[in-house]
Design goal:
Layout (H helix, E strand, L loop, with lengths): L1 E3 L7 E7 L6 E3 L6 E3 L5 H4 L8 E7 L11 H14 L5 E5 L5 H11 E2 L5 E4 L12 H13 L12 E5 L2 E4 L4 E2 L8 E2 L7 E3 L3 E3 L15 E2 L7 E5 L6 H8 L6 E6 L9 H12 L3 E6 L12 H9 L2 E2 L5 H12 L5 H8 L10
Parallel strand pairs: 2-5, 2-6, 6-8, 8-9, 16-17, 17-18, 18-19
Antiparallel strand pairs: 1-5, 3-4, 7-15, 9-10, 10-13, 11-12, 13-14
Helix pairs in contact: 2-3, 3-8, 5-6, 8-9
């Protein structure tokens, strides 16, 4: 499907990629169930798009993917599609279910190397055909942002981001926090890249810009998913901790710890941590708190983890650290090399 604004000089071209999710659903008038609508009818649902001086093409995944069924294969397919179409478009809008949107946006931020064009994820809490849908505003603003350029013709937002509920956020800084209201996502440790009101106000100091605009896009699609997540909680047992930290098929484990990076100080717990580190496992400390950062220097329990070889995830979200580990582990079979990159800010995912 292709459509363009009428009687306007086309300034940008956008590829809209529909992977699945609520935004592309419409209530069937007969059985009242939600079913995907034909994106050839997008102008009928969102006529506001005609007012932009933008050429919009669309690509729909077949079959569509429910957000809860998203796997790394989707990220690989998205990265490949964007690479193959990169020279034909000024920006990309990815329509995606909300449940795993932060995971997908985080993954693409690492996999799309030398990115100089916008890749804006968006979706909705209500179907786009519903009377009170948030899908129209999210989609219209995502298209406007993906097509925005500066005076030199460069993209205003040349990175992977999520637009939702009037806010543009760096994708690898987001997490979903609300299943019922329109403000589904937050970026707790990094400012919004833009906010949409009467006009869209860009936070230019927060937006990452490439060192060079002329480098070709490269993609890194080799991902190693042998990563587990252990959420520390009262009553956790030695059997659970050992099974996750020392599992034979696990190369890395994200420890979701208390507060600024604290975990139980019991001898059995530290013995298992030391055992896992001795096996060459990569253990990364990420706080359970929505906002804030890991500081293993602050309390004795955190210091014990650091002395054992647990790495700091700083202010990374769990979603972003999972994607970062998949990406780095896919680049090397050597865990020592991977560990050396965990604490480095690769694409704006952490504040050191």
């Amino acid at each position: 499907m292709t459509f363009t604004s009428q009687n306007r000089k086309i300034r940008s071209s956008i590829l809209m990629i529909y992977t699945g999710g609520t935004i592309g659903m419409k209530e069937d008038p007969v059985d009242l169930t939600l079913k995907p609508f034909d994106f050839d009818q997008i102008l009928r649902e969102v006529p506001e798009l005609e007012k932009f001086a933008v050429k919009i093409d669309s690509h729909t995944f077949d079959p569509l993917i429910d957000s809860s069924d998203v796997e790394p294969e989707l990220w690989q397919a998205l990265a490949t599609l964007i690479r193959d179409q990169y020279s034909h478009y000024d920006g990309f809008v990815v329509l995606h279910g909300t449940d795993t949107m932060s995971y997908s946006a985080s993954a693409l931020s690492f996999m799309l190397e030398n990115l100089c064009k916008p890749v804006i994820f968006t979706g909705s809490q209500l179907p786009i055909g519903a009377p009170r849908t948030d899908g129209k505003e999210n989609l219209v603003s995502a298209v406007e942002i993906a097509s925005a350029k500066d005076a030199e013709g460069h993209a205003l937002v040349p990175e992977v981001a999520i637009f939702f509920d009037f806010r543009l956020m760096r994708g690898n800084r987001t997490t979903k926090v609300n299943a019922e209201n329109f403000n589904a996502f937050v970026s707790p440790n990094f400012p919004n890249l833009a906010e949409a009101g009467i006009s869209i106000k860009y936070n230019t100091t927060a937006i990452r810009k490439p060192l060079r605009w002329d480098l070709p896009l490269q993609i890194s699609t080799t991902l190693d998913t042998r990563v587990s997540i252990l959420k520390i909680h009262p009553g956790i047992t030695p059997q659970i901790v050992r099974n996750i930290l020392c599992g034979p098929e696990t190369r890395a484990v994200i420890l979701e710890t208390y507060g600024s990076g604290n975990a139980p100080s019991k001898k059995w717990f530290m013995d298992i941590v030391n055992e896992a580190v001795g096996m060459g496992k990569i253990l990364v400390n990420v706080t359970q708190c929505l906002a804030g950062r890991v500081n293993m220097q602050l309390y004795a329990t955190g210091k014990s983890l650091e002395l054992s070889g647990v790495l700091s995830g700083y202010d990374s979200t769990t979603e972003s650290m999972l994607a970062k580990l998949f990406y780095l582990l896919g680049k090397s079979t050597g865990n020592a090399w991977v560990a050396s990159w965990i604490g480095q800010d690769l694409i704006g995912e952490i504040s050191i």
